[in-house]
Amino acid sequence: MRMEPGMTHSLMYSSAAAFALDDREVAALLADSRRRNAENGVTGMLVYIRVDDERCAFLQVLEGPEASVEQTYARIAGDELHTDLTVLSRGPVAQRRFAGWSMRFAALPGDDLLDASGRGDADPFQLLRDGAAMERVLAALGAE
């Protein structure tokens, strides 16, 4: 699909967190994301995955004007919080999945990630690189 002016651009990525965040830090990250996204016309969803007590990961969908989505992703990619970033999908979409959310949020234990992906025997960090599995996770969380 060719990107027409005014079309929505979507980018889904996963990353490992360089360090685990406590609930207060996650809330601050989410508040900052929502503020910035609202300013830039970006909507989406952030899934914070606590694999175990010391290892965490992110799954995020960003959608909106292509320049805004790509600038947002570039800022995220430059943040020391994120390691092992993997772009799972990127390109034009017919409509936003998260139109009413500057940033929808879900916190997910690692076991729930495995269950929602349909691949309960997988290594969570390998699974985060599987775009189809991550789409199943989003569907299980109610993303349309």
From TrEMBL:
Residues 8-104 form the BLUF domain. GO terms for molecular function: blue light photoreceptor activity; FAD binding. Transmembrane segments: none annotated. InterPro entries: Acylphosphatase-like_dom_sf (IPR036046), BLUF_domain (IPR007024). SMART domains: BLUF (SM01034). PROSITE patterns: BLUF. SUPFAM superfamilies: Acylphosphatase/BLUF domain-like (SSF54975). It holds the Pfam family BLUF. This is Sensors of blue-light using FAD. It comes from Pseudonocardia oroxyli.
